[in-house]
């Protein structure tokens, strides 16, 4: 794998670090104290757009990978995702851009659909996209979604409910996965683009979470939600191929390395805070009791974070060179959140009483990082995927 960065990427990374210190972390702490997401009209988002830091759209599948940026797009995405999450993962997720809705459109959409739905992000104003798979009765069991899609002339009619959908309330469009017949299982899956203000699409609430409060996690319902036939992602050819479930899994393979490395960013922030706390006390001539044991734990945590980053980078690198990455992406997603949780737990213990105060960074990081075990597939699901692929069994999820 090539870990080298070109000069443009180095400069963008420096810019992101400056913004992280000045804006990401303060905004994340403020949102956590208020217990509510950053509003979409906050001037921060316009500043991000003006600086050209909108979340990456992903490579255009129609374009040959002749430019360095195209050849390394996924590796660059994980690099910036970790750095943004280091300063605040909630703020990183609420950044303008297509979000997790980008990979399905890029991988499954027709050229006309990619132009139609992605062109809005070229505007000089903040815009968001969203991705809706999870349902109240179908989280990790992706094959068990119950949202129904019915063809009616030149339209599709959707009925169902989705939950914990990032940025759905402010999104220009949401990629909604539904089934034409639950009895067909995975073969019945289809993906649809539901645009903002479509009748029958109603965001019912923004969930109150234990952490990651800077971004919206929304629940919404679809009640006789009628959308144009052209909003079937991939068009009629896609419908005939019955590629819905495979398309969803392809999107997850692209995003799991990103989510995994976001966990590493959160864990690295906790590790740095704990390391600085130990160093400050040592410099003041008062080493913490159990000092040697603490150093050993910090070293162990650092090895885990570095190993997790390498796994995520490998998953991204395989995508960049056009190779399958499902196994590696699941390995990264399974390994990174526990490594990050260990870093946050260690930081809380090192800081002792200060570590559990709700005005301390590490207490917030501890609450933030737990969700990383769940999003983009739980630990149990990842272990199942890994085991079945290693043994060579058919995939069930």
Question: Can you describe what's shown?
Answer:
The protein has 397 residues and is an alpha+beta fold. It has 3 domains: 7-96, no CATH class; 129-242, Butyryl-CoA Dehydrogenase, subunit A, domain 2 (Beta Barrel); 245-391, Butyryl-CoA Dehydrogenase, subunit A, domain 3 (Up-down Bundle). 51% of the residues lie in helices and 13% in strands. It has helices spanning 7-34, 43-50, 68-71, 73-93, 102-108, 111-118, 235-241, 244-283, 291-320, 326-351, 361-370, 379-391, and strands at residues 129-132, 148-152, 155-166, 173-179, 189-195, 201-206, 217-228. Strand 2 (148-152) and strand 3 (155-166) form a beta hairpin.
Blueprint (SSEs and pairs):
Layout: H1 7-34, H2 43-50, H3 68-71, H4 73-93, H5 102-108, H6 111-118, E1 129-132, E2 148-152, E3 155-166, E4 173-179, E5 189-195, E6 201-206, E7 217-228, H7 235-241, H8 244-283, H9 291-320, H10 326-351, H11 361-370, H12 379-391
Parallel strand pairs: 1-4
Antiparallel strand pairs: 2-3, 3-7, 4-5, 6-7
Helix pairs in contact: 1-4, 4-8, 4-9, 5-8, 8-9, 8-10, 8-11, 9-10, 10-11, 10-12
């Amino acid at each position: 794998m090539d870990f080298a960065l070109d000069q443009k990427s180095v400069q963008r990374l420096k810019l992101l670090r400056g913004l992280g210190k000045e804006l990401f972390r303060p905004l994340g702490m403020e949102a956590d104290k208020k217990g509510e997401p950053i509003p979409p009209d906050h001037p921060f988002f316009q500043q991000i757009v003006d600086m050209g830091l909108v979340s990456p759209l992903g490579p255009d599948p129609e374009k040959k990978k002749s430019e360095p940026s195209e050849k390394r797009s996924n590796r660059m995405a994980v690099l910036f995702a970790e750095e943004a999450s280091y300063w605040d993962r909630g703020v990183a997720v609420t950044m303008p851009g297509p979000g997790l809705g980008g990979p399905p459109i890029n991988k499954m959409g027709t050229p006309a659909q990619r132009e139609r739905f992605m062109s809005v992000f070229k505007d000089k104003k903040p815009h968001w996209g969203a991705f809706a798979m999870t349902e109240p009765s179908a989280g990790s069991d992706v094959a068990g979604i119950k949202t129904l899609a019915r063809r009616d002339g030149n339209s599709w009619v959707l009925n169902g409910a989705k939950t914990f959908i990032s940025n759905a309330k402010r999104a220009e469009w949401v990629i909604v996965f539904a089934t034409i017949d639950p009895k067909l299982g995975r073969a019945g899956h289809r993906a649809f683009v539901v645009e903002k203000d479509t009748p029958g699409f109603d965001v019912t609430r923004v969930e109150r979470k234990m952490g990651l409060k800077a971004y919206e996690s929304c629940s919404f319902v679809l009640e006789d939600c009628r959308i144009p036939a052209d909003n079937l992602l991939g068009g009629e050819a896609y419908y005939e191929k019955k590629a819905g479930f495979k398309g969803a899994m392809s999107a997850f393979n692209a995003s799991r390395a990103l989510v995994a490395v976001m966990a590493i960013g959160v864990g690295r922030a906790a590790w740095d805070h704990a390391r600085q706390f130990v160093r400050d006390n040592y410099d003041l001539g008062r080493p913490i009791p159990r000092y040697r044991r603490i150093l050993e734990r910090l070293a162990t945590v650092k090895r885990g974070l570095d190993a997790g980053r390498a796994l995520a980078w490998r998953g991204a690198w395989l995508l960049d060179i056009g190779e399958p990455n499902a196994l590696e992406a699941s390995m990264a997603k399974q390994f990174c959140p526990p490594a990050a949780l260990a870093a946050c737990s260690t930081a809380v213990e090192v800081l002792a009483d200060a570590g559990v105060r709700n005005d301390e960074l590490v207490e917030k990081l501890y609450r933030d990082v737990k969700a990383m075990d769940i999003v983009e597939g739980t630990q149990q699901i990842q272990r199942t995927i890994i085991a079945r692929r290693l043994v060579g069994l058919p995939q069930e999820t």
